[in-house]
Sequence to fold (74 residues):
Amino acid sequence: VTGMRFDSEGVVGVSGQYLIAAALYTGPAYDAVRSELVRIVRDFESRHWRELEAPGGADALAEAGAEALARIMK
Fold:
């Protein structure tokens, strides 16, 4: 997990075995955003590891990954 703050805004990035997710946020939400991104990446990789290991599998799952990340947007 990597994070940076810029005044009242921040960015946090999470790298899993197969996926990388990043989010921009406003306010003091670093801990909540970080923990939610880690949970999403871990859950997604554990559910889809076979597809992610297959050639072209990550491309086929791009929309499902975007939907998983969209859940944390408020």
